[in-house]
Amino acid sequence: MKRKTLTLMVVLVLSGWFVSAQSVFKNNDLEISKLEDKMWVIETTDNTTMYIIEGNEKAMLIDTGTKCEKLKEVVHKITQKPLVVIITHIHGDHSGNMNQFDEVYFHAADTVLLNSFNPYKGKINFVADGQVIDLGGKKIEVSHMPAHTPGSIVLLDKQAGSCYSGDAFGSGQVWLQLRPYAPMQTYVNSCKKMERLMDEGITKIYCGHYPYVKMAFNKAYITEMRTLAEALVNGTAPEAEPHPQKVSIGCENPMMVTLGGATIVYDPEHLK
User: Fold this and answer.
1) What value does the mean pLDDT take over residues 162-174?
2) pTM for the structure as a whole
């Protein structure tokens, strides 16, 4: 087991960029660390993740995590600028505190999940693929990356070369065994789209569960994910094994398969 864990860590190192983090705030629910200029990661005690990006006029909070009392007040300890709150996808571990905010942004395709996870009472703004949100001196672009959920998005800071991916590409392991199911080819297409963006200047992918990896992924990780997904579509994937965790919104018998630093959890009855 120790050898297997060490091997996995070596693979992850080769698949990403380790980032030096400076802790700036901590309470019983979470810790906030500065990763880059005008950018912070919020890591919760239950391993969910949020990010804060600050522009000259506004700041952006990406996702709202879980079990975070007075999250809005906590974020304002880092920045006093008006907040744009954007949700990468409507799963409870990414949207759990939406109701602490009067207004949020997410992709319309995820409304199918809204009432199941977190009925929201505030103003909803739907975002579209290619939409740009100007924070003042810093522009964040929305890119639709469906598969994990119908409305999964990533947020691109092209000036910094950074992508905030939610769970669209997982955090070493992507979950594609969840309802509503997407064909594996949908995930292949999202990986290809992300590879193109990385060819155009994105170098760092900050994932949706940062505490598990403590780094930003690079293009090699996305390429491994795409190669593995294509192999599942073509029937040439490595031998799979049962996934040990079942969740209420997932299939009855999830399977998992690994290639290098990439693992896909999937429903064998919904590959196509």
Assistant:
1) 98
2) 0.93
